Amino acid sequence: MTAASSAAGRLPRVALLDYGAGNIRSAQRALEHVGAHVEVTQDPHVAVEADGLVVPGVGAFAACMRGLNAVQAPRIVGQRLAGGRPVLGICVGMQVMFERGVEHGVDAQGLGEWPGTVEKLEAPVLPHMGWNTLEIPEGSAMFSGLDADTRFYFVHSYGVREFPLEADEYIEYPRIAWAEHGPSRFIAAVENGPLWATQFHPEKSGDAGLALLGNWVRTLA
What we know:
Its EC number is 4.3.2.10, 3.5.1.2. It is found in: Cytoplasm. With 221 residues, the protein is an alpha/beta fold. The protein has a single domain (13-218), classed as Class I glutamine amidotransferase (GATase) domain (Rossmann fold, 3-Layer(aba) Sandwich), CATH 3.40.50.880. It is 24% helix and 32% strand. The chain is built from six helices and 13 strands. The chain has helices spanning 24-33, 44-49, 61-70, 73-82, 92-95, 206-218, and strands at residues 13-17, 37-41, 52-55, 87-90, 98-103, 106-109, 114-120, 128-133, 151-156, 158-160, 175-181, 184-192, 195-198. Strand 5 (98-103) and strand 6 (106-109) form a beta hairpin.
């Protein structure tokens, strides 16, 4: 039994949303490694009722949104977050949490959980592929036990370069990790109550990625 096991002795149940665009198997293996029982699913009931939901994503923003709409993901994510139930977005699974994405001349609507636009990074070399450090926010549960020299694995050409959300004394402001590629500074991760998301791939980031996924799975107990 792992540290992520609940007090009742069972493994946290994680639904890994399969909508035709995602790094499904490597994410499944990584989550199982840190103590989750993972079910790859397109079933809205399973996705809503699981202890945690993972929304992966690889490819173009608009294509991912079409796949997500086909499996009722906007309703699933909205219903979970309304009840304070954890959701983790990975790569394009993070990008779709923002209002919109502009990619290859296509302007597509996202899930709108956060303000902001996904757009092409301004850098001489794209895609941004490989290992990079982050500006880790203070008090982050997502990055607990990890230091500023920790590197994560990225593969992307698009990102969110601004987070146009004003601070509100009644709402806790999201904790945002930033990264840089060339002259572009972009959002690398967001921790916002039950909604966590990463632009990088924790499932491809070795021990650091497993530590982050373990931090998330422990919130599900």
